[in-house]
Specification:
The structure holds two protein chains of two kinds. Chain A is built from eight helices and 17 strands. Chain A is of the alpha+beta class. In chain A, the strands form four sheets. In chain A, strands 6, 7, 8, 9 and 10 form a five-stranded antiparallel sheet that branches. A four-stranded antiparallel sheet of chain A has the order 1-17-16-15, with no helix packed on it. In chain A, strand 2 and strand 3 form a beta hairpin. The radius of gyration of chain B is 19 Å and the shape is globular. By secondary structure, chain B is mainly alpha-helical. In chain B, 72% of the residues lie in helices and 0% in strands. The chains are: A alpha+beta, B mainly alpha. Chains A and B meet through helix 4, strand 13 and helix 8 of A and helix 6 and helix 7 of B.
């Protein structure tokens, strides 16, 4: 520690003043939050966010060029300002990570009325505390970059610029752009064309693009068998549920001490019920389900039980094989391996695109990206409806430029490492 | 390959790593410890590879599968630092820590099956998680150094070398944390429509990243003691643990898409 005879608030400022200033900024945001509540993102949409962004950078540049001798401006570009600011930012991010978050458009009635609610912690990213400390950190980042430009450029500066300019672009672009992101949900039925979508508040919006759904397909993983507790519905053993993945006929397995023999399998079946049991028969039409005939036996059981197990469909009930009064062999709903939509997309400019959209493979058209979001869950693999999400984020190029610079900067950090210290 | 073989492969690896770590104390030549550690790593990686092939997907989905990679990368980092700075004790500590995670995997095995939900079927999945596991291993090793420093502070003669090693490892670890986080952001844009949603996992990843940035910036200028810097390393690692598995127990994470199955 280098001790000086400086008293607090006497320049040059150090960490102590840094903490006072950073906490003071967070506190002013906090007071504003208590008096007026969260920022309404709608109020920050284009062009307000653009004007604010330009003003912000303008003020940074003005101070940089015309107040360069000011001790405060110089301090703002030092680690003595940086470290306290990011320590306070970290504390707020930790609160954000602990308190459950509500979406920005949540109804005020849904948000709990307690201290956390008053402090804006349930929607931290639109709370003034978070906004104030974020822009303060951005200002320090900006001043730090500007100060470095005064130095003669050497190749060692490349890492500094990639990381700091990259972070500034990604952080600033993300903060400003958040109000302009549109996320819309569109349901399209096979064989029809749709151009209306619902926004996050369930308002219907007409779009400049239309989607025609030609086919929708679902691929499932093979069916599984498991033993369930009939009273609780839980899979046994409760602490570590086990299951058997169906691999074909004439195989055997052991679950919870019971021998299970696979007698036969119907990939397309109807489930019928008589007065005593349910059973499966072949059925080759929409609504058909999987059914597996099994024999369950064990040393404790007097006689083996034989029956059909199925997870049913929107047309047929499920079917289990009872082992005793408490337990039965059941087939859970199959996990989905893949679902995809074969579509044609048209724009009002007359463009048309044919594509297969699936999870992780969105389609980009004009400034929109179209994502496979969901389908009609109640009909499962017979769903004739595909649910898409359409996303537009005009600020994305700025954020991506930042992300790419940061990626390059992290490579630099990895290859070059810290500056050698003169000991 | 099935999980039943894990105990054999991992035991053999632990034996090879232990021999390597013990021999490192007995000799100043690096060849023999290196050979033993590398053979242990090969045995361990063969198991990972076998699981990958038999599961028909990268073994990165469950908590136990991420621990598998962590136990693999720890001796890798131990070996790199041993080759670079000749610290013998780090090889022993990384072996010990890897063994702890192997024992957890033997005592509390996961259910392994081929199911991989559509959101995870992406070319970004493996690089994202593997890069993160590698960074976690580096930052785990540097945490051991920090603890070692704090315990032995008064007896240490050359603190500069230790601080230099800590700086280097935090830089490399943070570089990989940054890459893991950004690849995650690019992937999120492809899969969920937005690059950053403040999902609890993302929030804690940001907290971890910010915390290591504090260390890096504090070390740029004099004025903060080595002791404080080492405490920042330890706090950062605690935040990292919350990000990795601790958040499954937090109220915020009940709806997260990142909670491991």
């Amino acid at each position: 520690m280098n001790k000086t005879n400086r008293t607090i608030w006497e320049h040059p400022w150090g960490y102590e003043e840094g903490f006072y200033v950073a906490i003071g900024i967070a506190l002013s945001g906090f007071l504003l939050q208590i008096s007026i509540g969260n920022l309404q993102l709608v109020a920050f949409q284009y062009p307000v966010n653009l004007i604010f962004g330009l003003l912000f950078i303008g003020v940074l540049l003005l101070l940089h060029f015309f107040a360069k001798k000011s001790a405060i401006v110089r301090w703002l570009s030092s680690v003595h300002a940086t470290v306290p600011a990011i320590v306070v930012l970290l504390s707020i991010v930790i609160i954000l990570g602990i308190v459950p978050q509500f979406v920005a458009h949540a109804s005020p009635h849904d948000i709990p009325h307690n201290l956390s609610g008053l402090f804006g912690w349930y929607q931290m990213t639109t709370s003034w505390t978070f906004i104030f400390i974020s822009y303060f950190t951005l200002a320090i980042l900006g001043f730090t970059i500007l100060k470095r430009t005064r130095r003669k450029f050497t190749w060692q500066d490349i890492g500094f610029y990639l990381n700091h300019v990259g972070l500034f672009l990604a952080f600033f672009g993300g903060m400003l752009g958040s109000a302009d992101v549109s996320r819309l949900r569109m349901n399209v039925t096979e064989g029809s064309v749709e151009w209306r979508a619902a926004d996050e508040r369930e308002n219907i919006v007409e779009l400049p693009i239309a989607i025609q759904l030609d086919t929708f397909m679902i691929e499932e993983y093979p069916p599984k068998l498991m033993i369930v507790d009939l009273e609780t519905g839980k899979v046994l053993p409760e602490n570590r549920p086990v299951s058997y993945v169906f691999e074909g006929e004439n195989k055997s397995t052991k679950l919870m001490g019971y021998n299970i023999d696979i007698l036969s399998y119907l990939p397309n079946a109807a489930i019928m019920q008589d007065s005593l049991n349910s059973f499966a028969v072949p059925y080759h039409s929409e609504g058909a389900t999987h059914a597996i005939k099994i024999r369950v036996s064990s040393e404790e059981m007097k006689d083996p039980v034989v029956g059909w197990v199925s997870n049913g469909s929107f047309m047929f009930p499920y079917s289990v094989v009872y082992i005793d009064k408490e337990t039965a062999v059941a087939m859970p709903v199959q996990e989905v391996k893949k679902y995809s939509s074969h579509v044609q997309v048209f724009t009002d400019k007359g463009d048309a695109k044919e594509a297969v959209i699936e999870v992780n493979k969105p389609l980009t058209i004009d400034s929109w990206r179209i994502y496979q979001l969901s389908y009609d869950q109640s009909r499962g693999k017979y769903s004739r409806t595909s649910v898409f999400e359409l996303v537009r984020d005009p600020w994305l190029p700025i954020v991506y430029a930042g992300i790419i610079m940061l990626l390059a900067g992290s490579f630099y950090l990895f290859i070059v490492g810290p500056k050698k210290k003169k000991s | 390959m099935s999980w039943d073989y894990f105990i054999y492969f991992s035991s053999l690896s632990v034996i090879l790593w232990t021999i390597g770590a013990v021999v490192a104390f007995r000799t100043n030549k690096r060849l023999v410890p290196t050979l033993f550690t590398v053979s242990g790593l090969i045995v361990f990686f063969l198991f990972i590879l076998g699981m990958w092939i038999s599961l028909e997907r990268p073994p990165l989905r469950t908590m136990g599968e991420t621990r598998l990679w962590y136990s693999f990368f720890l001796p890798v980092v131990g070996l790199i630092t041993y080759e670079r700075w000749r610290y013998k004790w780090l090889l022993s500590f990384s072996t010990l820590l890897a063994t702890v995670f192997i024992v957890i995997n033997i005592a509390k095995p996961d259910i392994h099956n081929k199911v991989l939900m559509p959101a995870l079927q992406s070319p970004w999945f493996s690089p994202h998680v593997i890069i993160y596991m590698f960074s976690y291993a580096i930052l785990g090793a540097v945490t051991l150094i920090a603890i070692y420093y704090l315990i032995k502070e008064k007896k240490l003669t050359d603190t500069n070398k230790l601080m230099e090693m800590t700086d280097n490892l935090v830089y490399v670890g943070t570089a990989f944390v940054t890459m893991g986080m950004l690849l995650g952001a690019i992937w999120a844009k492809e899969a969920w429509g937005h690059y950053w949603s403040w999902d609890p996992k993302e929030t804690w990843a940001a907290a971890t990243w910010i915390s290591y940035l504090i260390y890096i910036h504090v070390r740029l200028r004099k004025g903060v003691s080595n002791r404080t810097a080492m405490i920042v390393v330890i706090i950062s690692f605690v935040i990292l643990q919350i990000c990795w598995w601790g958040l499954n127990y937090l109220p915020s994470a009940q709806r997260s898409i990142h909670v491991y199955s």
